[in-house]
């Protein structure tokens, strides 16, 4: 028989052992939990990253489509080279260019295909990837196309315009959504990425762009991805006839926001095309001796002289800035803006850069 005292001692020891065991279990659990939380967080992080950003392949589709849409064959060629480097197949790229005729016309599409043909030729690409498919003979294309259209847009597409010109409805359904969309090679989502990129690079197609942003969403494109497409294409067709040039890093300290500079000539008279992204403006400044002439070529912006109200500028406007007048120029909040800047030649001409145009002043402008 155990004495009461001894029994108590054993009980105490057992409790102590149990306590130590629980403590070590707790420590192990703690380690395990930290590891588990770490794994979950890492999963969230990489998962979110994969979900929210475009991948290389998608970005390649964006640039190919944007440069095709605006007919910039030089930049298109670079985009095509990069896409091939990234592993897009010849048939996948062909498919983007073929589809784009529906959104930016045969001429742009044909020119792009021609550029691509030369690129493939130069690189002696031998593997072309999966071949496109065609609908089985006898398919009711109007019905097939209608179903695809409903699947993409989320509802039957009707309206007065289609009653007014039924042929366009037939072509959209039988040709675009049946003939073209059934070809495979690209997913519907990839086709929408191409369309959004092309439409966001062309002027005056905002209703169609907005419709395709929604369709893109219906194909699983995340808002962040759509925003990225719009950001990537935002500078593609800017700068107008005289070109965007390069980012204006040399003068960036005198600007709020990003601007681009395309020097046109330096002989005798210095002339450059300057492009401001929305909200971008230069600091107050003075052109000593020579003055400056601005020829507005694209978008909406402002010119303001010190002590006077700002004047709104649009393509075709001319501003003759006398020497010694303190002023600024730049884009409206919601518009890209380009002007040609001519430095009026004068002996000992110089520029004096002054204070920023504050948000308070700028935000008053409509
Ligand atoms: Mn100026």
Write up what this structure looks like.
With 366 residues, the protein is of the alpha+beta class. The chain has 3 domains: 4-52; 56-234, AhpD-like, CATH 1.20.1290; 240-362, Jelly Rolls (Sandwich). Helices cover 50% and strands 17% of the residues. It contains 12 helices and 12 strands. The protein has helices at 4-52, 56-70, 73-85, 90-99, 101-123, 141-153, 160-164, 166-180, 188-199, 206-218, 223-233, 359-363, and strands spanning 246-247, 255-256, 259-265, 270-276, 281-282, 285-288, 292-305, 311-314, 318-321, 327-331, 337-343, 350-353. Strands 1, 3, 4, 7, 8, 9, 10 and 11 form an 8-stranded antiparallel β-sheet that branches. The chain has a two-stranded antiparallel sheet with strand order 2-5. 29% of the residues are buried. Mean pLDDT is 88; it is low at 45-50.
N-C termini distance: 98 Å
SSE-based structural type: alpha+beta
Radius of gyration: 31 Å
Percentage of residues in helical conformation: 40-55%
Largest sheet: 8 strands, antiparallel
CATH architecture grouping of the largest domain: Up-down Bundle
The total of helices stands at 12
Strand content: 15-25%
Mean pLDDT: 88
Instruction: Tell me how many strands there are.
Output: 12
In one word, what is the shape?
extended
Give me the strand/helix succession.
HHHHHHHHHHHEEEEEEEEEEEEH
The CATH superfamily label of the largest domain reads: AhpD-like
Question: Bound small molecules, which ones?
Answer: manganese (II) ion
CATH topology of the largest domain: AhpD-like
| The CATH top-level class label of the largest domain | Mainly Alpha
């Amino acid at each position: 028989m155990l004495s009461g005292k001894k029994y108590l001692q054993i009980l105490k020891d057992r409790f102590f052992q149990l306590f130590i065991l629980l403590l070590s279990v707790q420590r192990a659990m703690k380690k395990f939990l930290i590891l588990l939380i770490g794994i979950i967080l890492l999963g969230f992080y990489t998962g979110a990253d994969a979900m929210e950003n475009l991948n290389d392949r998608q970005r390649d589709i964006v640039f190919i489509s944007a440069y095709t849409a605006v007919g910039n064959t030089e930049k298109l060629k670079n985009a095509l080279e990069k896409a091939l480097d990234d592993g897009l197949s010849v048939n996948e790229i062909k498919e983007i260019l073929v589809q784009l005729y529906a959104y930016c016309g045969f001429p742009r599409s044909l020119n792009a295909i021609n550029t691509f043909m030369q690129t493939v030729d130069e690189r002696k690409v031998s593997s072309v990837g999966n071949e496109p498919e065609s609908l089985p003979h006898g398919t009711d294309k109007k019905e097939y196309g209608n179903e695809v259209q409903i699947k993409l847009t989320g509802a039957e597409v009707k309206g007065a315009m289609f009653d007014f010109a039924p042929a366009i409805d037939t072509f959209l359904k039988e040709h675009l959504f049946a003939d073209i969309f059934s070809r495979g090679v690209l997913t519907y989502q990839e086709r929408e990425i191409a369309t959004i990129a092309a439409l966001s690079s062309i002027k005056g197609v905002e209703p169609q762009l907005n419709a395709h942003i929604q369709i893109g969403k219906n194909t699983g494109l995340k808002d962040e991805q759509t925003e990225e497409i719009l950001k990537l294409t935002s500078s593609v067709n800017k700068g107008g006839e005289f070109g965007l040039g390069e980012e204006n890093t040399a003068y960036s300290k005198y600007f709020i926001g990003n601007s681009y500079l395309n020097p046109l000539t330096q002989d005798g008279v210095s002339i450059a095309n300057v492009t401001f992204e929305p909200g971008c403006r230069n600091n107050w400044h003075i052109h000593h001796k020579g003055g400056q002439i601005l020829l507005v070529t694209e978008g909406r912006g402002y010119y303001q002289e010190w002590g006077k109200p700002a004047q709104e500028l649009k393509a075709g406007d001319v501003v003759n800035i006398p020497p010694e007048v303190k002023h600024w120029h730049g884009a409206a909040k919601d518009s890209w803006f380009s002007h040609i800047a001519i430095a009026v030649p004068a002996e000992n001409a110089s520029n004096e850069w002054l204070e920023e145009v504050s948000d308070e002043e700028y935000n008053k402008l409509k």
